[in-house]
Design goal:
Elements (H helix, E strand, L loop, with lengths): L1 H17 L9 H25 L3 H5 L7 H21 L4 H23 L7 E5 L6 E2 L1 H11 L6 H16 L7 E2 L3 H10 L3 E6 L8 H12 L6 E4 L3 H8 L4 E7 L2 H9 L4 E4 L13 E4 L2 H17 L1
Parallel strand pairs: 1-4, 1-6, 4-5, 6-7, 7-8
Antiparallel strand pairs: 2-3
Helix pairs in contact: 1-4, 2-4, 5-9, 8-12
Length: 308
């Protein structure tokens, strides 16, 4: 199969060169114009593919079957355009293949999440992602250097947004190192009979690749988990996806999230950082200095529940 992909890829690249559309010799203006034309052509070819295959209701009415040769022709047209777009931006077959497998893992992860059954008596540990599992210090340090004490105005805000876009779009989350002890602690918690749910506010709804980048990072660093959720309102995610179960605890580092979670009756184990010192003493919130302390607190909570 890889050889077939390589041959199709090279055939399309050769045809693009014959047509005078070699992306190596294009400027950015021409590249964007041709990209738009290819997208429109791709839309038309996908429509042709739809017409060549049986519609759901037509299938139920036992209308004439699909002609496989026609479907193959339309699929080939779609592939040719997809390859042309990839080559236009200098991608290799390996990069497209890697992206394909990453997307496949995302679909598999979402399908697996649908199969996770959380009953009222299921023991659940919720964990934040950044600065709880993944060390986000590179982000923090770059942000500090970028700000450099400059006043907040339209220009600096625009610069900050461009920097964030670049971080999110370039896969920088995959470069982060794990927080010390996190993977071992998750395995221990799972051995104790817990379901681990990762809940992160990373803007996956705005940057589609963040889901795949996050999943790839979790797998690369052997961070076991049963479910991963993305969203700004973590309390809402608990009600939508975890209830009728309820978290035994939520490991978090963000002050605002800790306040919201504790107000909803969730035990919060707050990673102690300089950024969350404003929270002070709050019912349901206990500061922890690392994953060893998290395990001690979970053990204490479980013991208290057994005594009730």
């Amino acid at each position: 199969m890889p050889d077939l992909l390589e041959k199709m890829w090279e055939a399309q690249a050769g045809q693009q060169r014959d047509l005078g559309l070699d992306p190596r010799h294009m400027n950015e203006v021409d590249r964007r114009a041709i990209s738009g034309d290819l997208a429109l052509s791709l839309y038309e070819e996908v429509a042709e593919l739809q017409r060549a295959t049986s519609h759901y209701k037509r299938h139920l009415l036992a209308v004439n079957g699909v002609q496989q040769d026609n479907v193959a022709e339309e699929v080939a047209d779609v592939l040719k355009l997809v390859f042309a777009v990839a080559q236009l931006y200098g991608l290799s077959p390996g990069e497209v293949s890697d992206a394909f497998h990453r997307k496949t893992n995302v679909v598999a992860s979402r399908a697996e999440a649908q199969r996770v059954s959380l009953k009222s008596n299921t023991k659940v540990l919720c964990v934040d992602m950044d600065d709880v599992l993944a060390d986000l210090s590179p982000w923090t340090e770059e942000l500090r250097r970028l700000q450099g004490g400059a006043p907040q105005n339209a220009r600096t805000l625009q610069m900050m947004e461009a920097w964030k876009d670049d971080w999110y779009n370039s896969g920088r989350f995959r470069e982060l190192k794990p927080v010390e002890g996190a993977a071992d602690a998750l395995r221990t918690v799972i051995d104790w009979g817990y379901k681990v749910v990762v809940i992160t506010a990373r803007p996956q709804w705005q940057y589609k690749r963040i889901y795949a980048d996050t999943l790839e990072w979790l797998q690369a660093h052997d961070m076991p988990h049963h479910l991963i959720l993305f969203g700004k309102d973590k309390v809402e995610l608990i009600y939508q996806h975890i209830v009728p179960a309820w978290p035994v605890a939520f490991v978090e580092d963000h002050e605002r999230n800790a306040r919201h979670l504790s107000a909803a009756g969730v035990n919060v184990l707050l990673f102690d950082t300089p950024r969350n010192q404003g929270i002070g003493a709050l019912e349901g919130v206990k500061r922890v200095t690392g994953w060893k302390a998290v395990l001690e607190q979970i053990s204490n909570i479980s013991m208290e529940e057994r005594c009730l």
